[in-house]
Design brief:
Pfam families: Ppx-GppA. The chain has 295 residues and is an alpha/beta fold. The protein has helices spanning 42-49, 54-74, 85-89, 93-104, 113-124, 175-192, 202-210, 221-232, 236-241, 247-250, 253-267, 279-294, and strands at 2-8, 13-24, 27-38, 78-83, 108-110, 135-141, 146-152, 155-162, 196-200, 219-220, 271-273. It folds into 2 domains: 2-113 and 283-294, Nucleotidyltransferase, domain 5 (2-Layer Sandwich); 130-276, Nucleotidyltransferase, domain 5 (2-Layer Sandwich). It is globular and about 50 Å long.
Length: 295
């Protein structure tokens, strides 16, 4: 059985194809068969002009056609295309979804920040550093929004989505939203006393690698802060040419890192687990579970 997921984010569009590696009871171990990341930054238009430009509408249509053909080649059982913050907020987001549906015959689903956090939750406890009896705060920073969730004894206790993201906060930060973010985290951190943060998203995955941390090791707040300060000394061009960052990563990694760091400081945690899972893994796992339960 194979499934495919397209994550239409604010900073990029990612398509991933999965198969099943092993099944242990209720636990599904997946294997990634194919991955394609397209630098189609919908948030660049939406957070400035309120709508998706014609050029990017054309890009989304082309991506949808290509994805449909890839699904045929991979012979997938099922697939989902899910869109987050930028598509939710775009004045023409609904019209674009209808256009893709009529021209390509695939359906893009808009999911809320809470649904996004729930999907990510699907995969987090497969990480060996995460103990189901512990207390954690998850931080998922996307291009347009940040989802914070407090986990306690394997359960989602509190979750909230904030209009703070790597693309949205590139040039300026909404101070009212920033204050709400700080206060909300401080309030629930006091209640649940998380021992560590859990970070998901492309930017924290990249920072984890840049800090030289091995996959199964946690990243300390101190090392994270020092690496951010180091990167701040470089221009955008230098980050691309000398630090070898992708062009659509180099301009957002610092704004994203600032959000992760502030969340950790407000919660009083000094380590972050980076399990390298995200929305797509959670969606895929739900698709597999749905079909296995039917069979």
């Amino acid at each position: 059985m194979k499934v495919a997921v397209v994550d239409i984010g604010s900073n990029a569009i990612r398509s991933t194809f999965y198969g099943i590696d092993q099944i242990h009871g209720d636990e599904i171990l997946m294997k990634k068969l194919s991955y394609l990341r397209l630098p189609i930054r919908l948030g660049e238009d939406v957070f400035k002009d309120g709508k998706i430009s014609l050029a990017k509408v054309s890009n989304v249509l082309s991506m949808s056609h290509a994805f449909k053909h890839l699904c045929m080649i991979h012979e997938v059982t099922d697939y989902r295309l899910v869109a987050t913050s930028a598509m939710r907020e775009a004045d023409n987001g609904g019209a674009l979804i209808e256009l893709v549906k009529s021209q390509v015959e695939v359906e893009i689903e808009l999911i809320s920040g809470d649904e996004e956090a729930e999907m990510i939750f699907e995969s987090i406890f497969l990480c060996e550093q995460v103990d189901t009896t512990g207390s954690y705060m998850t931080i998922d920073v996307g291009g347009g929004s940040t989802e914070i969730t407090f986990l306690n004894h394997g359960e989602r206790c509190e979750a909230k989505s904030f209009r703070l993201g790597s693309v949205r906060c590139q040039n300026s930060v909404d101070q009212d939203e920033w204050t709400k973010f700080q206060q909300w985290i401080k309030k629930y951190a006091k209640k649940y006393q998380p021992s560590r943060a859990i970070g998901t998203g492309g930017n924290i995955n990249k920072m984890h690698r840049l800090c030289g941390v091995r996959n199964n090791k946690v990243l300390s707040l101190k090392d994270f802060e020092e690496k951010v300060e180091y990167l701040k000394q470089f221009t955008y061009k230098e980050l691309v040419e000398e630090e070898k960052l992708k062009t659509d990563r180099a301009d957002v990694i610092i704004p994203a890192s600032n959000i992760y760091l502030e969340a950790m400081r407000q919660a009083g945690v000094d380590e972050i687990i980076v399990p390298k899972v995200g929305l797509a893994e959670g969606v895929a796992r739900k698709l597999f579970r749905h079909h296995l339960e039917k069979s």
